[in-house]
Amino acid sequence: MLKVQLKNQKPPVWHRLVVHASTHFSELQSKILRAFNFCNDHLSSFFLGTNVGCPEICTSQYPGELEPDYEIGQILGTNIGAKLTFLFDFGDDWEFLITLEKILDDPKDVPARTIMHKGGPVEQYPDYDEDDDEWDDEDDDGFWDDEDDDEDDEEDLYQSPDKYYLLKVQLKRWKPPVWHRLVVHASTHFSALQFKILNAFEFENDHLSSFFRGTDVDDPEICTCEYPGALEPDYEIGQILGTDIGAKLTFLFDFGDNWEFVITLEKLLDDPKDLSARTIMHKGGHVEQYPDYDEDDDWDDEDDE
After folding, report:
1. Residues 200, 179: Cα–Cα separation, whole Å
2. Which stretches are tagged as biased composition: Acidic residues (predicted)?
3. What pLDDT digit, counting tens, does each position of 173-231 carry?
4. What is the model's pLDDT at position 139?
5. Rounded CA separation 206/210 (Å)
6. Residue that wins the pLDDT comparison between 229 and 27
7. For residues 218 and 216, what is the distance between their CA atoms, to the nearest angstrom?
8. Given pLDDT bands bounded at 50, 70 and 90, which one contains residue 59?
9. What is the pLDDT of residue 297?
10. How far is Cα 182 from Cα 196, in angstroms, rounded to an integer?
């Protein structure tokens, strides 16, 4: 059992994770970021000790891929109290202190009264002045004058309302049904909605995806991506849904396995606190993104020269 605390936060923010010693550092990183609702979109490193000045264990050349990707048990062993530091995003420098608190034979051995998290949530990207990102008119020498700025496409867009949406996200063709409810602001972009959906279903954000207006992938496409997590055009969901209670979208994830999710706008809220405490937020069991398979299928002795 690991305690993962975000450093330099007051009041403290931390999560406890139960992972097997054979878990690789790349997978541990994913679990940490998922717990803190961070996107796995930056470089990172792990260090043996309580700060980034300690010996480096592994680092990444691009997001999510750590080298060498040891099993955490190779580093921690059975040393109760051992500490690691996880540095995420070499620009914002998020530092997490990881402590090995307990060794378990079975996850069920965790006492029912164990507090699994405290504090938060923490915004990975706090609000900033978007004017900083805009073009300076003096720098625009007409290079974009021939572009129509997608004006025709934007004619059908709503102005995002200042409301929160209660969305029901159901995995299609799954028995018994599996779904999650999410509360998100109408200004949430589709890339962020994708992350929240995958986080809810405990899927890795490691494949291409698209969103569609309606209940099927044959309906008009809203946005798609050329590489994982980057949707274009990345509209605000309120520009598509408006205030249309009952409106539906389809989210297609992984163009190989073709996971399809139907998203329904169930309710408009002025404040997330307006949601009834009795609201059921999810139903159904855990869905394996990568079900167990026979690794022998990956190699054919006749092809191994």
Report:
1. 9
2. 126-157, 291-305
3. 999 999 999 999 999 999 999 999 999 999 998 899 999 999 999 999 999 998 887 89
4. 43
5. 13
6. 27
7. 5
8. very high
9. 52
10. 8
Residue identified by tokens 């190989």 is: 256
CB 44 within 8 A of CB 28: no
**184, two tokens:** 């998100």
Q: Is the dihedral of CA 253, 188, 185, 11 positive or negative?
A: positive
CA distances from 4 to 43, 83, 141, 218, 292 (A): 18, 10, 50, 43, 28
Enter the tokens of residue 170. Answer: 């159901």
Would you state the structure tokens that stand for residue 169, as one six-digit string? 């996200």
Q: Contact 208/226 with Cβ under 8 angstroms? A: yes
> Could you give the percent of the chain with pLDDT greater than 70?
86
Report how far apart, in Å, the C-alpha atoms of 245 and of each of 100, 139, 241, 264, 305 are.
47, 43, 8, 8, 60
Tokens of 81: 């109290």
pLDDT digits (tens, 9 = 90+) for 235-281: 999 999 999 999 999 999 999 999 999 999 999 999 999 999 899 99
Q: Residue 279: what residue type?
A: T
Alpha carbon separation from 300 to 59, 294, 303, 305 (Å, rounded): 33, 12, 5, 10
**Where do the domains of the chain lie, and which CATH numbers do they carry?**
2-118 (3.10.290.30), 160-283 (3.10.290.30)
- Helix or strand holding residue 180 (H, E): strand 179-185
